[in-house]
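Hi team,

Below is the intake form for 4-hydroxybenzoate brominase (decarboxylating) from Bythopirellula polymerisocia. Please confirm the fields before the structure is written into the shared record.

FORM ID: S-0412
PROTEIN: 4-hydroxybenzoate brominase (decarboxylating)
ORGANISM: Bythopirellula polymerisocia
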Amino acid sequence: MHSSYADRYCILGAGTSGLAVAKNFLQQGIPFDCLEREDSIGGNWCYGKPASSVYASTHLISSKRLTEYTDFPMPEEYPEFPGHELVHAYLQDYARHFDLLPHIRFNTTVERIEPSASKWRITLAGGETRNYRGVVIANGHNWDPSFPEKPGEFSGTTLHSCEYKTPDVLSGKRVLVVGGGNSGCDLAVESATYADRAFHSMRRGYPILPKFFKGKPIDQCGETLLRWRIPLPLRRLAAKLVVRWVLGPPEMVGLPRPDHKLFETHPVINSRLHDQIAHGNLHVKPDIAELAGDTVRFVDGSSEQIDLIIYATGFKLSFPFIEKAELNWRDGRPDFFLNIFHPERNDLFCAGLIQPDSGQWGLVDYQSQLMASYLVALRNNSPAAARFNELKQSSINNWNGRGSYLDSPRHRLEVEHFGYRRELKKLIGKLV
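The structure came back. Fields below:
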């Protein structure tokens, strides 16, 4: 066992969240190692790696200006919604610009994390153990696929959206895409383009927003309304009018009418779904009732012969390397203040454990700034650190930015980005 790690923090993962933590720790003089299982940075955006769930045609859902890090803008020549190649190039430039690569240990898999006296014992693949001062879990939460349980057996091919990569698997097939979120809608459009016949099964209707309104990314339009402090009912009305002007009512093309209000679920942004349905290239179906060989029966009594089912049904929240009790586990997730800070411990953090209604990396940058400021305040025995400790214990489930989302597993990590960002910036100001 090596003793030189005892004053360092261990950052798990060199994806978009781990890089933000590494940058902020480096700027604040906090010693750390960033441990990465793969041989390169980028995590989910490193197309073709085992840890990546992006496919060949993946682009950002949020616009570049609301996705980028706070102090490293995406290049002006990038399109509003860059594809995964440009995204990965941006992340590589970020790591080089802030000189992060010397602090990242590649091809290093963490098998186990457990508390040991006043440290954390990290067990690596191969058996090596290290004692670190603290741990930042930043390995992402979109990697353990979730499949719905349906009666019967399907004799065709089954994929999760994270396993789908290229459209050649769709060619000549009758394809059913299951799931009404962003990945489900994107893959339904892709199936409508390349499959012999394409179907899209949704349990419920979701409000779908266009990617652009009058040439401007729709999330930047929403950001303007939030900056102007327009009340939620008026923002809902504005968004509803935009949807009717640009896309039309969902039921006009056969999509189910949403059973909830705008901004009560994670936003679905897609400008092409309505078009593919209206052209007869995509056929909308309700929830699956039963699987029967190569036939799928739906709850409305209809049935279709299917060759390939793609389940775009989200991910389980999994941390196989650490006991749930160490994560203050409640209601299917770690119960951390701001989804970052353990309420009792000052040496265990999560980064990127959020699903915002806009871009994520800038928010994780602010998370990391707050985390680093807190550790510096602790190091300096600052009264601000003591006040923050009281706050994270007493206000663990009472902070701004949660939003008013429907109570469902899909929204366990959901945050309203504008209020959440404002809360992070306010608390950073109190610690510096």
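SUMMARY LINE: The domain at 9-144+315-431 is CATH 3.50.50.60 (FAD/NAD(P)-binding domain).

Thanks, M.
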